[in-house]
Amino acid sequence: YHPAYEVTSSYRLPDGRCHLAFARVGSDPGDPDPGQVLTAVFHRAEQDDLLDRVATVDLTGLGLARVPPEVLCLPRLSALHLGGNQLTEVPADIGRLTDLTTLVLAQNNLESLPREIERLDKLTALNLSDNRFESVPPAVFRLPALTALHLERNDLRDPALPPEIGGLRNLTSL
């Protein structure tokens, strides 16, 4: 990968899967797009037959304008941290990450979520804080395992909770 970025945390979980966290080291305008660097890292992981071992990817604060497509091809990913970026949309392919239990999308520029997010039936924690949501995305109400939902500092038009929130029977933190 490029010296402007580093894997700040990489460790093996007890079940043999891996946690990867990335960070920008400098702020040189000549640095490559972080997406290009991530593509190279994931390509190497694929060559080494490690993609099915990646459990957590933390891409917090990298200034990403889009979700790297390689992340959406990690079959056993259980936690994805994309907070503090410049995302304006989440691709529909997010629905392919059916083992996902934690999804952090805080501090972006999101106004909506794709309907396909409802396929994440193992998702227990969803952080949508500090975005531009005017209402709770309808797909959120179809996440049966959800226990924590964070919506702080959005542009919610109606501060009252919609009745659909009652369908989230496991929700303990809002």
Question: Key terms for this structure?
Answer:
174 residues, mainly beta, 7-stranded mixed β-sheet, 8% helix, globular, disordered N terminus
Task: Walk me through this protein's architecture.
The protein has 174 residues and is mainly beta. Helix content is 8%, strand content 18%. It is built from one helix and seven strands, in the order ββαβββββ. The chain has one helix at residues 34-47; strands at residues 5-12, 18-24, 54-58, 79-81, 102-104, 125-127, 148-150. A seven-stranded mixed beta sheet has the order 1-2-3-4-5-6-7, with no helix packed on it. The chain is globular. It starts with a strand and ends in a 24-residue tail after the last strand. The relative contact order is 0.11. Residues 1-9 have low confidence and may be disordered.
Radius of gyration from the CA trace? 16 Å
N-C termini distance? 38 Å
Low-confidence stretches: 1-9
Q: Report the principal-axis shape.
A: globular
Average pLDDT for all residues:
82
Order of helices and strands: EEHEEEEE
Sheet having the most strands: 7 strands, mixed
Main-sheet strand order equals 1-2-3-4-5-6-7
- Beta-strand percentage? 15-25%
Helical amount among residues, as a percent range? under 10%
| Continuous helix count | 1
Return the structural class.
Answer: mainly beta
- Write down how many β-strands occur, each being a DSSP E stretch of 2 or more residues: 7
